[in-house]
User: Fold this.
Amino acid sequence: MGFVRAFGPAALAAGLGLLPGGGAFAASAEKGKAAYVQHGCWQCHGFQGQGGVAGKALAPDPIAAEAFTAFVRGSNGPMPPYPEKILSNDDLADIYAYLQSIPKPADHKSIPLLNQ
Assistant:
Protein backbone atom coordinates (compact mmCIF):
# COMPACT_ATOMS: atom_id res chain seq x y z
CA MET A 1 0.00 0.00 0.00
CA GLY A 2 1.38 3.40 -0.93
CA PHE A 3 2.05 6.24 1.49
CA VAL A 4 -0.63 8.49 0.00
CA ARG A 5 -3.28 5.74 0.12
CA ALA A 6 -2.32 4.80 3.69
CA PHE A 7 -2.07 8.28 5.20
CA GLY A 8 -3.67 10.68 2.73
CA PRO A 9 -2.39 13.66 0.75
CA ALA A 10 -2.05 15.90 3.83
CA ALA A 11 0.41 13.49 5.41
CA LEU A 12 2.33 13.30 2.14
CA ALA A 13 2.51 17.09 2.00
CA ALA A 14 3.69 17.27 5.61
CA GLY A 15 6.23 14.51 5.04
CA LEU A 16 7.63 16.24 1.99
CA GLY A 17 7.80 19.60 3.71
CA LEU A 18 5.22 21.30 1.53
CA LEU A 19 4.04 24.60 2.89
CA PRO A 20 0.41 25.72 2.79
CA GLY A 21 1.25 28.41 0.22
CA GLY A 22 2.38 25.76 -2.26
CA GLY A 23 6.10 26.32 -1.76
CA ALA A 24 8.40 23.64 -0.48
CA PHE A 25 11.46 23.45 1.70
CA ALA A 26 13.95 20.69 2.19
CA ALA A 27 14.03 19.48 5.77
CA SER A 28 17.56 18.84 7.00
CA ALA A 29 18.42 15.78 9.06
CA GLU A 30 21.66 17.48 10.14
CA LYS A 31 19.81 20.56 11.41
CA GLY A 32 17.20 18.24 12.91
CA LYS A 33 19.80 16.42 14.98
CA ALA A 34 21.01 19.75 16.37
CA ALA A 35 17.42 20.88 17.12
CA TYR A 36 16.66 17.49 18.73
CA VAL A 37 19.56 18.04 21.13
CA GLN A 38 18.90 21.78 21.64
CA HIS A 39 15.24 21.26 22.56
CA GLY A 40 16.06 18.39 24.94
CA CYS A 41 14.28 15.60 23.07
CA TRP A 42 17.23 13.30 23.81
CA GLN A 43 16.61 13.54 27.56
CA CYS A 44 13.56 11.26 27.32
CA HIS A 45 13.88 9.67 23.88
CA GLY A 46 17.64 8.99 23.76
CA PHE A 47 20.16 10.40 21.29
CA GLN A 48 19.05 8.00 18.54
CA GLY A 49 15.33 8.24 19.28
CA GLN A 50 15.55 4.73 20.74
CA GLY A 51 13.34 5.54 23.70
CA GLY A 52 14.06 5.13 27.36
CA VAL A 53 12.52 5.13 30.80
CA ALA A 54 10.74 8.47 30.30
CA GLY A 55 10.00 8.51 26.56
CA LYS A 56 8.84 6.21 23.80
CA ALA A 57 10.98 5.13 20.86
CA LEU A 58 10.73 7.59 17.95
CA ALA A 59 13.06 5.89 15.48
CA PRO A 60 13.64 4.05 13.31
CA ASP A 61 10.41 4.34 11.37
CA PRO A 62 8.77 7.34 13.05
CA ILE A 63 4.99 7.73 12.88
CA ALA A 64 3.54 9.68 9.96
CA ALA A 65 4.66 13.32 9.83
CA GLU A 66 1.15 14.71 10.32
CA ALA A 67 0.57 12.57 13.44
CA PHE A 68 4.03 13.44 14.78
CA THR A 69 3.40 17.17 14.37
CA ALA A 70 -0.06 16.96 15.93
CA PHE A 71 1.31 15.07 18.94
CA VAL A 72 4.26 17.41 19.51
CA ARG A 73 2.03 20.48 19.25
CA GLY A 74 -0.90 19.17 21.30
CA SER A 75 0.43 16.55 23.72
CA ASN A 76 -1.52 16.40 26.97
CA GLY A 77 0.35 13.46 28.51
CA PRO A 78 3.70 13.27 30.26
CA MET A 79 5.41 15.09 27.37
CA PRO A 80 4.69 18.82 27.40
CA PRO A 81 3.34 20.32 24.17
CA TYR A 82 5.81 22.33 22.10
CA PRO A 83 4.00 25.32 20.54
CA GLU A 84 5.45 27.08 17.52
CA LYS A 85 6.79 29.86 19.79
CA ILE A 86 9.14 27.30 21.37
CA LEU A 87 9.75 24.93 18.44
CA SER A 88 9.41 26.41 14.95
CA ASN A 89 7.75 24.48 12.14
CA ASP A 90 11.10 24.39 10.34
CA ASP A 91 12.84 22.91 13.39
CA LEU A 92 10.04 20.38 13.82
CA ALA A 93 10.33 19.33 10.16
CA ASP A 94 14.11 19.04 10.56
CA ILE A 95 13.70 16.90 13.70
CA TYR A 96 11.34 14.63 11.78
CA ALA A 97 13.89 14.39 8.94
CA TYR A 98 16.54 13.45 11.52
CA LEU A 99 14.32 10.70 12.96
CA GLN A 100 13.66 9.39 9.44
CA SER A 101 17.41 9.30 8.76
CA ILE A 102 18.20 6.99 11.68
CA PRO A 103 18.84 3.54 10.22
CA LYS A 104 17.36 0.34 11.55
CA PRO A 105 19.81 -1.61 13.72
CA ALA A 106 21.59 -4.57 12.21
CA ASP A 107 19.78 -7.89 12.37
CA HIS A 108 21.20 -9.80 15.33
CA LYS A 109 21.87 -12.74 12.99
CA SER A 110 24.37 -10.59 11.07
CA ILE A 111 26.51 -9.96 14.19
CA PRO A 112 28.96 -12.87 14.59
CA LEU A 113 29.51 -12.44 18.32
CA LEU A 114 25.77 -12.84 18.97
CA ASN A 115 25.65 -16.08 17.02
CA GLN A 116 28.27 -18.01 18.98
